[in-house]
Automatic annotation (TrEMBL):
This is 6-phosphogluconolactonase. GO terms for molecular function: 6-phosphogluconolactonase activity. Pfam families: Glucosamine_iso. Keywords: Hydrolase. It is an enzyme of class 3 (hydrolase). Its EC number is 3.1.1.31. It catalyses: 6-phospho-D-glucono-1,5-lactone + H2O = 6-phospho-D-gluconate + H(+). Residues 11-219 form the Glucosamine/galactosamine-6-phosphate isomerase domain.
Length: 233
């Protein structure tokens, strides 16, 4: 079992500063070691402030490839689009932003196309920065017909289409997600969350390990290196 180190902050600003600093350091280490960096960045609300601070850092962004950890099957101009949010922040910095969805409407086809697109990238990720949903989903690994393939699929599979069942009420759309294998193979995995409820959920997931019924629990159980968990109330 890996070690999870909790980093607690007094407020969201302090959390954002710390996470942006950590991510920036990991990217700079990768650039120094290999002359390039490939990072998986999350969607949702929690990471927005930290991502904005990260984009403002003085980094050789032209040598950085950014992949959303997951995305909703919506056009990049849609406010729900994760790649749309990341492109706004990082394309002006000359980073390469690789979409998981390219206009497909069928999640199974979108997942296959994303997997082919990612096959050309030099894996593993240097950083997989993750959030967690109030229901315990991570990236867009949700209960439903694609859950087993996302959690237990072949290690070579990097992305897969997801038809959540039940559909999340706040965001009832199909998705494409990086698989658990693609996420846990990252050189560094970091988890960023806020609020007491999510903290309790992650602490239980860590305790339950591989027997966790939650996607986040199954992912944490398969990590092969320690993880930093950044949290504020
Ligand atoms: O596409 C997404 O929704 C995210 O990648 C997702 O996995 C996110 O991390 C959680 O849903 C938490 O979202 P919040 O940070 O907004 O609570």
């Amino acid at each position: 079992m890996i070690d999870a180190e909790w980093w607690d902050y007094d407020d969201a600003d302090e959390l954002a500063e710390a996470v942006a600093g950590d991510a920036g350091f990991i990217i700079e280490q990768a650039l120094e070691a290999r002359g390039r960096a490939i990072i998986g960045l999350p969607g949702g609300e929690t990471p927005k402030a930290a991502l904005t601070l990260l984009a403002a850092r003085k980094i050789e962004w032209a040598d950085v490839t950014i992949v959303p950890t997951d995305d909703r099957l919506v056009p990049p101009t849609d406010p729900r689009s994760n790649v749309g949010m990341l492109a706004k922040l990082f394309l002006p910095k000359k980073a390469r932003v690789v979409p998981l969805c390219a206009g497909e409407t069928d999640p199974v086809l979108a997942g296959r196309a994303a997997d082919e697109r990612l096959a050309d990238l030099e894996w593993p990720l240097d950083l997989a920065w993750l959030g967690v949903g109030a229901d315990g989903h991570v990236a867009s690994i949700f209960p439903g017909p694609d859950y087993d393939a996302a959690i237990n699929g072949p290690k070579a599979r990097r992305a897969i289409g997801v038809r959540p069942d039940p559909m999340p009420e706040n965001m009832p759309v199909a998705r494409v997600t990086l698989t658990k294998a693609a996420l846990v193979s990252a050189r560094t995995v970091t988890l960023v969350l806020t609020g007491k409820d999510k903290r309790k959920l992650v602490e239980k997931a860590l305790k339950d390990g591989a027997s966790s019924t939650l996607p986040i629990g199954r992912l944490l159980a398969d990590l092969e290196m320690d993880i930093d968990i950044h949290w504020c109330e």
